[in-house]
Structures are given as structure tokens and as C-alpha cells.
Amino acid sequence: MGRRHVDISELYDLFKERKDCWFVCCDIKEQMRINEISHKTGDLAIIEAMERMSAAAGDSDVVFRIGGDEFCILTDSREKSCAEGLAEAIRARNGETFSGEGREVPLYLHITPVRPESGRIRYDELYTGLHRALLEGRNAADAPSADA
Predict the structure, then answer these.
(1) Up-side HSE of residue 22: CA atoms within 13 Å toward CB?
(2) What is the C-alpha to C-alpha distance for residues 126 and 74, in angstroms, rounded to an integer?
(3) Is the whole-model pTM more than 0.70?
(4) Smallest Cα–Cα separation from 23: which of 76, 73, 77?
(5) Would strands 103-106 and 70-74 be described as parallel, antiparallel, or unpaired?
(6) What is the DSSP string of 51-95?
(7) What tens digit of pLDDT does each residue of 115-136 get?
């Protein structure tokens, strides 16, 4: 079954309907390095990231791009374990390669499950919150461990 496509107004309606559901936010690690190969390769990395997310997502989940190399899955679940399972399925593919400009290019994604605070959802606040969650998740992943 193919994934349903939604326009921005439908997506906003889903944000309101699923206000207590989880998001899985992703962004491409080292997108600038990939773009140095070529912008076409950078575009292929974006497509590959979306395909990995779509492969992990459930039939009622919605995969969308929030800008640049940043993406989200809006789940249809209020369970954190569902979002964590999606994140793990996507993370398991980190390091797999895609073909670009005759090269095999490894692709890694930062992945952060997040649930916005319940209540009234305004798009601008949600968008800002998703970006903040990605940044916080990226910084936590890049921080040295206490064992180091």
C-alpha cells in the first residue's frame, strides 16, 4: 500500500488531531560534506533519508520535511515506545550507503523522538519545538560520554 500524500493544510489538521502523539525528528549528519561531492548527491541524500523514514513508518504515520536536511514522522501513537521503535529502525540503517556521482556515500541520521507539550498547537511553535528537539538530540549524541 502506498503512503498517502498530504498538503500543508491537511498536515496542520493532523497536528491538531494528533496533539498527544509522538514525532520522530531526523536530520542528516554532515550534509555539507555530502554537498561537497555535488548538490545532486546532496539531493539524493535527502531522498534516501526520506525513504528510510518511510520504510520505518507505519501506514497511518506521516513523513514530512521541515526544512533543509531536517525531517519528521508524525506518528499516530501516544506511546513513547512506538516512537523509540521507529527511531531504532531508522538508526539501524545508519552507515548504509547510497550511490551518488559514481560513489557509494554513507548516510547517517540524527534521530530524536519528541512529543510536544499537550494543548493548543500553533504551527510556528511546533516547528520551532521540532527544530529545538533536533538540536538538543544532536548535541546529546555528540557530547562525550562520562566514560571517556
Answers:
(1) 18
(2) 12
(3) yes
(4) 73
(5) unpaired
(6) HHHHHHS-TT-EEEEEETTEEEEE-S---HHHHHHHHHHHHTTTT
(7) 877 555 566 666 677 767 777 7
